[in-house]
Amino acid sequence: MRPGLGTTIPSRRRATFRQTLLLGLAHEALAGSRDQRDGLGKEDAHRVAKGRCLLLGRPLYLHSLERGACQLDSRVQRQRGELLPLRLVHSLGLLLGELTQAAHQLLGVAAKGKAESTFHAITVPTVPQFTESLNGQIAYEFGASQQYVAIAVWYDAETLPQLATHFYRQAVEERNHAMMIVQYLLDAGATVSIPAIAEPQNDFPDPVAPVRLALEQERTVTEQISRLASLAREENDLVGAEFLNWFLKEQREEVASMSALLATVERASDNILLAEEYLVRQQIGDAGVDPTAPPAAGGAL
């Protein structure tokens, strides 16, 4: 059935169908002649009634309206498809802009934090490396003292009193060296840390081995004191460097005397009692009290 002029479309049809009729009417008017378009624009060819129906201004077929509506709808969908990438690009542009701004803010905060860290690193006082190393040397000196005690006890157990006495005396000297460093740190107003020490070697295969170990220990301590003196000069700590000059002189004497003792016991390795007899006649490494020695905390023994 072809609807003509005055055709009534019941209002129970979906509201979208009413919109389709109006869009179809507009399409037909645009598709018609110029007179038809002008007449539509001036006389309002379609009239909307006050009732529950829609009156059309000229004969118009339903299938034409539906076809026009479909064509218009397809154009709208196509335009939406064309606009979607543009909207996506626009959204991505906004998103990238926000990310860029956030990155600039983060970089600004990082740079500020780095500057603040540098500022604190400059202004917050730190413990000089020389002071820390000097505290570490306390452990080496006490370790050397304990090793000499262990050697003296071994010689005592072997009934070699002269060698035992020599190393008991050496143990006291190394203990005094540690306490000299403690006193220096106290006088300098630095923090003193008394560290733990490792267990010394207590067993030896023969009477020569303890002296050989003692010489190696003295050479090691000499290297440690030399590094400390170099570090004091690098940090421009002239007082610390002057303090260590006495230790450098002392270590030169200790290495020399221990080398002489090793040579003695090696020559008497077949009869170690000859070394004992030699030590009775000749004291090795016992120069007495040195008046130029630095003061020791609690007094030297």
Write up this protein.
- This protein has 301 residues and is mainly α.
- It folds into 2 domains: 15-80, no CATH class; 129-281, Ferritin (Up-down Bundle).
- Helix content is 70%, strand content 1%.
- The longest helix has 62 residues, at 62-123.
- It is elongated, with a radius of gyration of 52 Å.
- The model is unreliable at 1-9, 40-62 and 117-125 (pLDDT under 50).
In short:
Helices cover 70% and strands 1% of the residues.
Defining key terms:
single chain, 301 residues, mainly alpha, Ferritin, 2 domains, two-stranded antiparallel sheet, 8 helices, disordered N terminus
What value does the Rg take, in angstroms?
Answer: 52 Å
Number of domains: 2
Instruction: State the end-to-end CA separation.
Output: 131 Å
CATH architecture of the largest domain: Up-down Bundle
Estimate the mean pLDDT confidence. Answer: 76
Portion of residues within helices: over 70%
User: Residue ranges: pLDDT <50 for 5 or more in a row?
Assistant: 1-9, 40-62, 117-125
Q: What share of the residues does DSSP label as strand, in percent?
A: under 5%
DSSP summary: helix tally: 8
**Structural category:** mainly alpha
Number of strands: 2
Form type: elongated
The strand order across the widest sheet is: 1-2
In CATH terms, what is the fold-level topology of the largest domain? Ferritin
Name given to the CATH homologous superfamily of the largest domain: Ferritin, core subunit, four-helix bundle
N-to-C series of helices and strands: HHEEHHHHHH
Give the biggest sheet.
2 strands, antiparallel
